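Running this now, will post back.
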Amino acid sequence: MGFQDTPEEWQVTATETPFAGNKTSVRTDEVVMPDGTVVRRDYQVHPGSVAVLALDDDNRVVVLRQYRHPVRHKLWEIPAGLLDVPGENPLHAAQRELYEEAYVKAEDWRVLTDVYTTPGGCDEAVRIFLARSLSEADGERFEVSEEEADMELARVPLQELVRGVLAGELHNNCLVVGVLSLAAVLAGDGIEALRPADAPWPARPFEA
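Update: finished.
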């Protein structure tokens, strides 16, 4: 199989959900360890997310700056959002988020990478897309509220974002993974080697 992650599921003898929120919940499982002992593992149950690294013809990335209360920071990020519907096609969700957050559409879509954001404490899986051939979206702008009402938009050269990541100035998970992955792609086999936008995603199976 080569050097890759593999699915595995240890025995769970009991489970409970001490908290259920609007989009996520907390689950407590009693898991049997290899030596036979049973330990409790608490983790956040998450529907999954998509993110979009949108690259324009000048090699600039569409980014937005948004307040994130848990870390008490305004972070530069790439457009992203939840998979709101179980089994939702992640490409459709990514196209929706790019439209809603940046009022942009793209003609060329590829899968850039798939990640588990915090596998020690959350089952969130994120698919990061690369979107190119950008243009302004059609129709009315999406009405924003709450934190998004204070959002700033910009287009920043890819190499400036890479520098900011490595300097410890940019911290959003999807932005960091996305820009470093794209830099690696451009220095390696090229964009044509990326997976197609409808590539299977075992972490969040979907219908085409």
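The chain has a mean pLDDT of 94. More later if anyone needs it.
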